[in-house]
Specification:
With about 325 residues, the chain is an alpha/beta fold. Helix content is about 25%, strand content about 20%. It is built from 10 helices and 16 strands. Strand 14, helix 10 and strand 15 form a beta-alpha-beta unit. Bound molecules: zinc ion (2 copies). One zinc ion binds next to loops. The site of one zinc ion has 4 residues, from loops.
Amino acid sequence: MLKLTFLGTGAACPTIDRNVTSLALVREGETMLFDCGEGTQRQMMRYGVSFAFREIFFTHFHSDHLLGVIGLLRTLGLLNVFGETNRADGLTLYGPKGARRILTHALEVGIEKVKFPVEIVELKVGDTLKRKEYDILTFPTEHRADTIGYALVEHRRLGRFNPDRARELGIPEGPMWGRIHKGESVSLPDGRTIAPAELVGTPRAGRRVVLSGDTRPCDGIRHAALNADLLVHEATFSHEDLERAKETGHSTAREAAELAHAAGVKRLVLTHISPRYSREAPELLAEARGAFAETVIARDGMEIEVPFAEAGAGGGEAG
Ligand SMILES: [Zn+2]
Ligand SMILES: [Zn+2]
């Protein structure tokens, strides 16, 4: 499963309707946080996001994306004392240029030391974090600060294995099925050789989730979001306030939707909504849907699941 929980969806300062920015991404049981505005830890409790995460990714270090890390790390330290969570391996904080200096300061605020190891990793645009089943890519954004956007890109998966055909061919169920599924030709006791193409379909695309952070619409995002399953794009303003968006390095809802349309994404979620709009922000939604129908406006606590493109098609897995 791949699921996003929007912990804070407002711009600049918290309001009754929206906390400042943070997003939890849970993939196959692994939780990652993206940005950590003030009050993020309480939003995690409220919306049932696990504290058993190991990584926070910062898009930039404006205070509405940063200040929550100070309290969150203190709370994680307390939980460690009571043995409620094991942080023996510590936590890694990622961010663009300035990460080391700013996050080191943040860890020193409050006098008492953070009680588990915290590693700070400064990323450059174009860096890739390679993982077993997915990569995290960084891409350039434009926001009058040192910023990066993030894309989680799953590796291609094996093609579907056809168990009925395997039985027809008299291939004994067991390890041999797994070997064929992984692309090996196998020899049967009767001398036949079975090539994987006889039983396994073409490899299937993984999912692609793209997070813009605060930014003007730009080629960096357009490129990263090409055919993405989900684009989370900031939409601080309505298009009436285009000039203000340009001045402050933000996007309008219409601009974000036009970008989503141009990039051919499947779904768009707009977030980082200015406090000047109401909770449902109908004017932002209307102008965005005019350019791209598959748009929703994020609210605090909203959960979005990202299915595989061919979900529901059924089919066998042979290990
Ligand atoms: Zn912001
Ligand atoms: Zn910002």
